[in-house]
Amino acid sequence: MADEAAPHVLLICYPAQGHINPMLRLAKRIAAKGALVTCSSSSIVRDRLADASGVSAGGDGVPIGRGRIRFDFLDDRFDETAQDLDGFLGHLETAGRLALGDLLRRQAEAGRPVACVIGNPFLPWVTDVAEEAGIPSAVLWVQSCAVFSIYYHFAHGLAELPREDDHEARFTLPGLPALSVADVPSFLFASHPYKKLGDKVKDQLRNMSKASWVFANSFAELERDVVAALPSVRPRPPQLIPVGPLVELEGPEPDSNVSVRGDLIKAADDCLGWLDAQAPRSVVYASVGSIVALSAEAVAEMAHGLASTGRPFLWVVRPETRPLLPEGFIDAVAGRGVVVPWSPQDRVLAHSSIACFLTHCGWNSTLETVAAGVPVVAFPQWGDQCTDAKFLVDGLRMGVHLRVPLRRDGVREAVDAATTGPEAGTMLANAKSWSVAAQGAVAPGGSSDRHVQAFVDEVSRRTRGGQAQAEEAKV
C-alpha cells in the first residue's frame, strides 16, 4: 500500500500520444520525489496505455524512486460511433466531468484522497471539476512557452493576427522575435480544419486563473526571454513554471527500478540493434509523429528523397501510411534503409549513429532532439509545429527548413545541409550545447528539478495540514 503520509497527485490527460508522453514523464518525476501519483485518461486508451506502461489499471501501482505510480481510468463510456473531432471533444467533456468526479470520490473512499489534480490543454473542464471538489489544481502546458505567449495574446485580444494570405507581414510579442503568418500556430486561423482544438486551448487559457500551478514542458535556460517577458503583459498571465524537458534521457529512470513508458503504438525495439551496426553520425532518422498524415505524393517524394541521400536511414511510417509507399520500395532499400511502424524515439535520438532528425517539429520531438543534441531538418505541417520549426532553425540555430511543396531533391539537399553543409558544424555544436543545458535542467538541483521538488514539498505541506485538521476534528 502507498504511504498514507505521501501526497496523492492525480494527472488526467487528453488521450493522444503527444499529451500522454509528457504527462507520464511528469508523473514519474513527481513520484520519484515521494508522492503517490495516479495517471488517468479516457477509457478509449485504457488497454493500450496499461499495456505500454507495464502497469495494470487499479491497485497500488509500482515504485518509482521514493513514491509510486498507478493508473485509474475515467469511466467515460466512449461511444465508438462519435468519430469526428467535435463529437469526441463534446462527449469527453460531458462524460468526463461526471467520470472525473466519480474517480475523485473513489480515491477518497479507498483511503487515498487526491491532494492535487493536474490537467492539460484540450481539457479545460478538469480545473472546474477540481474546484467544485475543493481540490487544488494545476495545468501542464504541453507546448512551448513561446506558443503559450502567442495563444495568450490572441485569446485576450492583446494582438491582432495578420491576414492568412499576407506572407510579408510581421508582428512582435514580448520576448519573441518578429513572427510571420507561417510562424503562427495554425489552430488560430479560422480556415484550419482542427480549429476546434484551438478553441479548447483558448478556453483553457481563460480558465487558468483557477489553477494554483501552471507547469510548462520546457526549461528556464531554453526560453528565458519569453518567460521573463510574460509578467509584464496585462492582463497578467499565470506564472509559467518550467519542469522540462519531459523526455526520457539516456540511462535508467530517475530513482527507479522499473521502466514505465506510454507508447500507444508498439515500438520496433529491434531497430536499435540495426543502429548499433551503423557508423557514428551516419543515419538519417525521419518521423512525422503520431498524427500528421501525408499525401501519397508526399510519401513517395519522401521515400525517394531519403533513398537519394546515399545515407542509411531509419524512417517511421505508421501502419495506415505504409500502403502509400512506392511499390517495391522496402526491397529496394533493404540493408541501408529501415522502415518501422513506430520507434522508441528517445533512445533512437540518443544513439551515436544518428546524424540528423527529419521531423514534423511537434514539441515533444523538438525537446527530444534538443535533449539528444541532434541537428534537425524541419518539416512542420500545422498547429504549434510551425512555431517550433522557427524556434529550432532561427532561434536555436540547430537545423534547416525543408522546402515545401515536398520534393525528393529538397529532401536530399536539406539532409546534406544539416550533415555536411557549410553550417553543419555550427548546427551540431549548437545542438550539443543545448543538450548539456537540457540535461542539466532535470539533473538533481537543476532548474526544472527544483521546480518539481518545490511543488511536491508544497502539496506535502498542504496534505499534512489537512490530516492534522482531520485529527483535531476527531478530538
The domain tally reads 2
Mean pLDDT: 91
Report the sheet with the most strands, covering strand number, pairing sense and barrel closure. 8 strands, mixed
* Principal-axes shape call: globular
Overview of the molecule:
The protein is an alpha/beta fold. The protein has two domains: 8-260 and 444-474, 3-Layer(aba) Sandwich (Rossmann fold); 271-438, Glycogen Phosphorylase B (Rossmann fold), CATH 3.40.50.2000. It is 41% helix and 13% strand. A hairpin with a 2-residue loop joins β3 (62-64) and β4 (67-71). α3 (85-109) packs parallel to α4 (125-132), α9 (296-308) crosses α14 (408-419) and α12 (363-372) packs across α15 (424-442). The longest helix has 28 residues, at 447-474.
Give a quick summary of the entry.
This protein is α/β, with parallel strands linked by helices and 475 residues long.
Which descriptors would you attach to this protein?
single chain, 475 residues, alpha/beta, Rossmann fold, 2 domains, eight-stranded mixed sheet, six-stranded parallel sheet, 14 strands
Topology, pairings included?
Layout lengths: L7 E6 L3 H16 L3 E6 L4 H8 L8 E3 L2 E5 L13 H25 L6 E4 L5 H8 L4 E5 L3 H11 L39 H13 L5 E4 L7 H6 L10 E3 L28 H6 L6 E5 L8 H13 L4 E4 L12 H4 L4 E4 L4 H5 L4 E6 L3 H10 L3 E3 L6 H11 L3 E3 L6 H12 L4 H19 L4 H28 L1
Parallel strand pairs: 1-2, 1-5, 2-4, 5-6, 6-7, 7-8, 9-10, 9-12, 10-11, 12-13, 13-14
Antiparallel strand pairs: 3-4
Helix pairs in contact: 3-4, 9-14, 12-15
